[in-house]
Structure formats: structure tokens, C-alpha cells
């Protein structure tokens, strides 16, 4: 039995990015406990971004799960938020992480970093902003619109742009580990077909590498939780019920 769903945001975002999807989830399942986590240095979790590592992000998520009194959860991670998932599994085990749903996720191979994995204009933007080791400034409005907001209505764009924030450049360059810490049989992937930030080709390569067979494609850009909240919420509920079984 699952008693909660934990939502993890990606780079340059806060937990607020999940609000439209949380509204849909709670509206459809009022008894579902949904926890959207602010990673360190964002939102209600103030911290020096220069000190933020993947390990600190994992600790923040685990602490929020424990504080909420959740015993068995479904973990949903968007974009770079996926960096935390292997560590969450390592700390809580499969007994407590019943299922995982990765959304437009960026999860490099073992020993590689985010910068090693990104391609095209997104890699150029991230590399340029994180080269001095200081926090990566939130992208210029026009760049953010291109990266995150294609296919959105004007109100949806304003919602996304209003909550963007600075990011830890350490996370861009830190080598990660994923092999052996995810169960592909209990992991699903949501792939936005018009994603400009984590290209669909990159996502599909990761899907194959991890052996994930359950893939749902949505005709959306990177921030699908803001542009298609009803559709995403429906996918999350269905996948959570099926995977957590």
C-alpha cells in the first residue's frame, strides 16, 4: 500500500513548479498525500548553493519524507531532479520506494556528469554559466522561454518564468552513480516529445541504458508539469497504481 507521492523539481526550479499537477492529483484523489520538495538552496530550503551536492539533495528529500511520516512512497523526479533518485533508493530501499516515475529526466551514466550528458544549446548555456564555480544564475527570460516554455499558453509561461531561480553549478559537474540502484520493473518514464532541454534522443538513450520498458510520451516541452498538468497527473496516478501494485 502506498501512502504518498513525492515530487522532485529540476534545475533552476522550485517545488512551486508542481502546483498545477498537484492540484490535478489532489482533485482526482483527495486522500492522496502529495509532497513537493524544495531542494537545498531553493524555496523554503535556504542554503548556500555553492555547497549543494547531490548528496545534500538526497538528504533533503529523505528528510521531507520522514517529516511527513510517509512509509511507502512513489517518487516522481523531473529533469535534473532525477540525480537524487539513486541515492533515495539507496537510503530508503525498495521496501519504502514502491515506484519511481522519471519525467523528462536527466540521469547520466555512472561516472559522468550533467555537462557530459547535455547536448546542443542547452549544454552551451549551462557550461557557460557554471564555469566559475559560482551558483548558476537563472537563465535570461528569452533563454528560459526557449528551454522550458515551448507549446505553453501565455499564463503558463508566466507561471514558469516567475518561479525560476539560481542553481548549484556543482550539480552540473558532479559525477553520478545510477547503475544497480534503480529497478527498471518498478520505474516508468514520461517523455515530452518536444523537449528542448533534455532532448528526446538523450532521454531514449537513457531509457535503453536503464532497461526501462514503461514509457509514456506526451506532446509537450520540458516543463510538462505546467503545460499539461491534467495529462501528467493522470499518467502519474496510473503508473503509481500499476507499479506499486
Architecture overview:
- The protein is an alpha/beta fold.
- The protein has a single domain (4-244), classed as Alpha/Beta hydrolase fold, catalytic domain (Rossmann fold, 3-Layer(aba) Sandwich), CATH 3.40.50.1820.
- The chain is 41% helix and 13% strand.
- It is built from eleven helices and six strands.
- It has helices spanning 19-28, 54-67, 85-92, 114-117, 120-130, 141-148, 154-162, 169-173, 200-210, 224-227, 229-244, and strands at 4-8, 34-37, 73-78, 97-103, 187-192, 214-218.
- Strands 2-1-3-4-5-6 form a six-stranded parallel β-sheet, sandwiched between helices.
- Strand 3, helix 3 (85-92) and strand 4 form a beta-alpha-beta unit.
- Helix 1 packs across helix 11 (229-244) and helix 2 packs across helix 3 (85-92).
- It is globular, with a radius of gyration of 16 Å.
CATH-assigned homologous superfamily: Alpha/Beta hydrolase fold, catalytic domain
Calculate Rg over CA atoms.
16 Å
Shape: globular
In CATH, the architecture is: 3-Layer(aba) Sandwich
Structural class: alpha/beta
Number of helices: 11
The average pLDDT score comes to 91
How many structural domains does the protein architecture include? Answer: 1
Give the total of beta strands.
6
| CATH fold node name | Rossmann fold
The N- and C-terminal alpha carbons lie at a distance of 8 Å
H-E order: EHEHEHEHHHHHEHEHH
State the share of residues found in helices, binned by percent.
Answer: 40-55%
The CATH class assignment is: Alpha Beta
Main-sheet strand order equals: 2-1-3-4-5-6
Low-confidence stretches: none
Percent of residues in β-strands = 5-15%
Give the biggest beta sheet.
6 strands, parallel
